[in-house]
């Protein structure tokens, strides 16, 4: 490990960045340095722009995929190397504004009905019933299910934050049935390796298999269930601020995007066209004369 890599790693550890973020940042900087075959200390903003152009034009990466690269380079040069570079030295492409595809209540029901495994059903039902991220589902422990207070404790979610979410009475029944069947000791959903939790890739695989069995054509991922959780809460009258707390969003603006996809709330608004007086009926044109 080079001294610069060690310094950057220490800087990230001091700031308590998530382990996945640390690994991603180191990989991004390593790829950047290998491309130019020089230490990042010897490179300048021109090389940063050339690298981003290469990733976009040659590697065909989507704008959203460049975020980790830019975050890693910003951290390296601004924090570790203490370069006085502006945001313009790390041009961030504008992401296209796309709305997620939302499952209806009936589709969520059909999806769950297509899951034969009790463990997979409990796992994916927990993702929807509590609006959890895939990593949060994977790292749940049995002691995080508090049936006395009817809450689920989420330990060290995104941005290293703990939070509580509601424990649905129906979900509690499912989790109790699963617990009596599997008797998990530490991790609520253990993986194939003893002592380790289930992996996110295993959760995605279970979700994809259930989608195929259900026959639903919409794309379904564990994050789709989280989107459905927030949208369904909003459509049934839950306050946006409360949804923000349940979702663990840092900014209210992140939660507010669900206002655009809560169709039963937004699209149920009366159009001003319906408030206009009914116009006089359009007279029918005169019938054409018959000549035969």
From TrEMBL:
PROSITE patterns: CB, TYR_RECOMBINASE. Gene3D superfamilies: 1.10.150.130, Intergrase catalytic core. Residues 98-271 form the Tyr recombinase domain. Signal peptide: none annotated. One of its GO terms (molecular function) is DNA binding. It holds the Pfam family Phage_int_SAM_4. Belongs to the 'phage' integrase family. This is Integrase.
């Amino acid at each position: 490990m080079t001294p610069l890599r060690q310094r950057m790693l220490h800087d990230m550890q001091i700031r308590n960045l998530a382990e996945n973020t640390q690994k991603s940042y180191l990989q991004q900087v390593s790829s950047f340095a290998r491309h130019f075959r020089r230490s990042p200390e010897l490179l300048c903003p021109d090389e940063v722009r050339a690298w981003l152009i290469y990733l976009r034009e040659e590697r065909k990466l989507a704008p959203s995929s460049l975020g980790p690269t830019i975050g890693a380079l910003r951290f390296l040069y601004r924090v570790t190397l203490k370069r006085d570079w502006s945001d313009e030295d790390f041009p961030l492409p504008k992401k296209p504004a796309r709305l997620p595809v939302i499952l209806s209540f009936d589709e969520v029901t059909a999806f769950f009905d297509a899951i034969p495994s009790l463990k997979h059903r409990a796992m994916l039902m927990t993702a929807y019933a509590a609006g959890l991220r895939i990593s949060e589902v994977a790292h749940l422990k049995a002691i995080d299910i508090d049936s006395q207070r009817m809450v689920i404790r989420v330990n060290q979610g995104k941005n290293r934050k703990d939070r509580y979410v509601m424990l649905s009475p129906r979900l509690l029944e499912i989790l109790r049935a699963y617990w009596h069947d599997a008797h998990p000791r530490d991790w609520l959903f253990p993986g194939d390796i003893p002592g380790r939790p289930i992996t996110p890739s295993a959760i995605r695989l279970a979700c994809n298999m259930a989608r195929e069995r259900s026959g639903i054509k919409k794309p379904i991922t564990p994050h789709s269930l989280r989107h459905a959780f927030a949208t369904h809460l909003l459509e049934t009258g839950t306050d946006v601020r409360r949804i923000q707390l349940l979702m663990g969003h840092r900014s209210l603006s992140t939660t507010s995007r669900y206002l655009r996809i809560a169709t039963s709330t937004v699209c149920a608004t009366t159009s001003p066209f319906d408030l206009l007086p009914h116009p006089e009926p359009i007279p029918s044109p005169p019938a054409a004369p018959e000549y035969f």
